[in-house]
């Protein structure tokens, strides 16, 4: 039973990006239509010019669930720096979902654009569809990616997932693109499907687990062992896995687990053990 339930609907179809970082449980539980502003392209608008807000329940403002209904594909920065409460998106969401998120939960029934969970520190983001590039990453020029929390992607993810990641968990149940875990310095990334090239490039620490197929391992990683399983927060994922260490070009001590069964072309590494 929801203690405070707020529904948000777009008033029309959006043609240009909407910067709506104010869509958080914290901001909407004390909703005042004159105070909340959003950017539509380069124009500052009142929140109520673009969105309709319906407060369904108001029993406890300390336990807030915001439900977004309609097309939010062009709406970016939903859940920026939110610390508690829930956001449920019935459809797709735009760029930078959960940017700097510190707590609470965001669940998306559709797809999300790039930079989901960028610089995230805590909480949970669950995406039932696909995600774009730079999930859990730092911004261009920055070195502080995701530090904590959990991102679950039930579909596929794009390139440079976990760029400069320092902590937390990213779990992808589909496939992932190029440069997974680039510059990674901590945390865990799990891909249950296949992954494109350059996995773990310039990583210095952290753990990457690939349960599907890859084409190759970077030459700056060295084979260390064959493991029967890999662990994620106490959960055991059955192997066997080749365990590599790297990126040695950066004096890295990151761990890369790659499925042995799905990658028979990597069998020559066993001669090096």
Question: What secondary-structure arrangement, pairings included, does this model have?
Answer:
Layout lengths: L3 E7 L7 E2 L5 H4 L8 E4 L2 E4 H4 E8 L5 E6 L5 E2 L9 E5 L14 E4 L15 E4 L22 E4 L15 E4 L12 E7 L13 E6 L11 E11 L2 E12 L7 E6 L14
Parallel strand pairs: 1-6, 2-7, 6-8, 8-9, 9-10, 10-11, 11-12, 12-13, 13-14, 14-17
Antiparallel strand pairs: 1-5, 2-3, 3-4, 15-16, 16-17
What does this structure look like?
The chain is mostly beta strands and 273 residues long. It folds into two domains: 1-89, no CATH class; 114-273. 3% of the residues lie in helices and 35% in strands. The protein contains two helices and 17 strands. It has helices at 25-28, 47-50; strands spanning 4-10, 18-19, 37-40, 43-46, 51-58, 64-69, 75-76, 86-90, 105-108, 124-127, 150-153, 169-172, 185-191, 205-210, 222-232, 235-246, 254-259. The strands form two sheets. The chain has a 13-stranded mixed beta sheet with strand order 5-1-6-8-9-10-11-12-13-14-17-16-15. The chain has a four-stranded mixed beta sheet with strand order 4-3-2-7. β16 (235-246) and β17 (254-259) form a beta hairpin. The longest helix has 4 residues, at 25-28. The radius of gyration is 20 Å and the shape is elongated. The termini are far apart.
């Amino acid at each position: 039973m929801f203690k405070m339930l707020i529904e948000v609907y777009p008033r029309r179809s959006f043609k240009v990006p909407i910067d709506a970082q104010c869509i958080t449980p914290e901001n909407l539980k004390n909703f005042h239509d004159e105070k909340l502003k959003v950017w539509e392209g380069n124009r500052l608008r009142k929140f109520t010019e673009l969105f309709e807000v319906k407060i369904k329940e108001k029993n406890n403002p300390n336990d807030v669930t915001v439900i977004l209904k309609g097309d939010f594909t062009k709406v970016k920065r939903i859940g920026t720096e939110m610390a508690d409460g829930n956001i449920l998106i019935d459809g797709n969401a735009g760029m930078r979902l959960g940017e700097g998120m510190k707590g609470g939960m965001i669940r998306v029934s559709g797809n999300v654009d790039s930079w989901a969970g960028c610089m995230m520190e805590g909480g949970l983001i669950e995406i039932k569809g696909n995600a774009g590039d730079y999930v859990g990453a730092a911004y261009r020029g920055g070195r502080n990616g995701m530090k904590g929390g959990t991102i679950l992607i039930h579909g596929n993810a794009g390139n440079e997932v976990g760029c400069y990641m320092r902590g937390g968990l990213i779990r992808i149940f589909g496939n992932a693109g190029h440069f997974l875990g680039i510059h990674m310095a901590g945390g865990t990334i799990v891909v249950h499907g296949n992954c494109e090239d350059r996995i773990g490039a310039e990583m210095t620490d952290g753990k990457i687990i690939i349960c599907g197929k890859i084409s190759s391992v970077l030459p700056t990683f060295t084979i260390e062992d064959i493991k029967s399983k890999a662990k994620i927060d106490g959960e055991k994922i059955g192997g066997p896995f080749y365990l590599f260490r790297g990126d040695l070009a950066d004096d890295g001590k990151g761990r890369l687990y790659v499925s042995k069964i799905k990658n028979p072309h990597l069998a020559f590494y066993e001669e090096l053990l």
